[in-house]
Structure formats: C-alpha cells, structure tokens
Design brief:
183 residues; mainly alpha; 2 domains; elongated
Length: 183
C-alpha cells in the first residue's frame, strides 16, 4: 500500500481535481474493474455511497469526481487489496519462526503427559471436591428400584410445587403495592 494521501489532498469540493488525483483515480478504477469476476459493477468508494452500493465504472467515476473518496478508505479492501496484504503478513510471520514452529516441543509435551512414567494413578480429589462428586452421583441414582426418577428429579419437582405458589403470591403482592404507589 503506497501513500494514499492523494485521495484526499487532490480532490476539492466543487470539482477541483489535481493531475495526480486524476491519474491515480484512473489507476484505482482500472484495478477495481479488472478484478471483477462477473458483471460490470463493484462497490463505489465515494463519500455518498461509502462502499454500500454497487456502481458501473461510469457512475463510479462521476461519483468520485463529485463527492470524493469516502473518509479513511486507504486500504482498498472492497477492491481486492486485502488478500495481498494478508499474504504478506502471513509470510512475514512464518519467516520469523523456526522451521517446525514449536511442533516438536508440543509433541514432546504430549508424549510426556500420556506415555511417560507408565500409567499414573488418578489422584484422589480434595475432601470438598469428593463430597461434591459424591452428591452428583447420588443425585443421579433412582429413588427406588421400581422407578427411573432420580433423587435430583424429585427434588426439582418438589421445589417447583412449593416455590411456584409462593412466587405467584409474592408477585401479586408486589403488583398491588406498585398499584397503590401510583394511584
């Protein structure tokens, strides 16, 4: 991306255009329309359209001359420039790293964690964690041998039957209180 100050310094309201602006705008238009895969319209970067409307080359040229380029559009992402810049950044990052990019270290770590020192015994959890795990297991057990309903299911059902009427009564009382405040 070269210096794009010309896009804004070479255009003045009222149609005053510098030679540099005219030449470089023509080059921009040539590039933008050369990259079209189908059709004859592309996103118009003028101040009026702001890359939100597709225009033909003739209309876009007219718009750029009348309205100038949209503010801060110095990387022409709507006109095919982003891909080239991305490739340059990726290539630079790859060249900065070693050839295997740390893959050998990651494989060594994986091997140590899974295969070295034989099979490790699983550590016993702390007392509070063990109590929590035991409660989870117990909550999944059926209430008795003749049902599939778990202890957790029964507890939730019991809470919902007890809590629902209380919640409804509290809501009704709150509504009456608010009504009394605003009447």
């Amino acid at each position: 991306m070269d210096d794009r100050a010309w896009m804004y310094t070479g255009w003045k309201c009222g149609g005053q255009l510098s030679e540099e602006w005219i030449d470089k705008t023509e080059t921009f238009l040539d590039g933008a329309f050369a990259k079209l895969k189908r059709g004859n319209t592309t996103w118009c970067p003028c101040n009026k359209c702001g890359n939100t409307r597709r225009q033909t080359r003739e209309v876009m040229t007219n718009h750029l001359c009348n309205y100038g380029f949209t503010r801060d559009y110095t990387r022409w992402t709507y006109h095919g420039e982003a891909n080239g810049m991305r490739n340059e950044v990726i290539r630079q990052r790859i060249e900065e790293h070693d050839t295997d990019a740390g893959v050998a270290d990651m494989l060594d770590d994986f091997h140590e964690a899974h295969f070295d020192e034989g099979r490790r015994e699983e550590e016993e959890p702390e007392a509070t964690a063990k109590m929590y795990y035991d409660m989870l297991v117990a909550a999944q057990q059926p209430l008795h041998g003749h049902t599939k309903v778990s202890q957790l299911d029964e507890a939730v059902l019991e809470l919902s039957t007890v809590a629902a009427p209380a919640a409804a009564a509290a809501t009704a009382e709150l509504c009456l209180y608010e009504h009394a405040l605003f009447v």
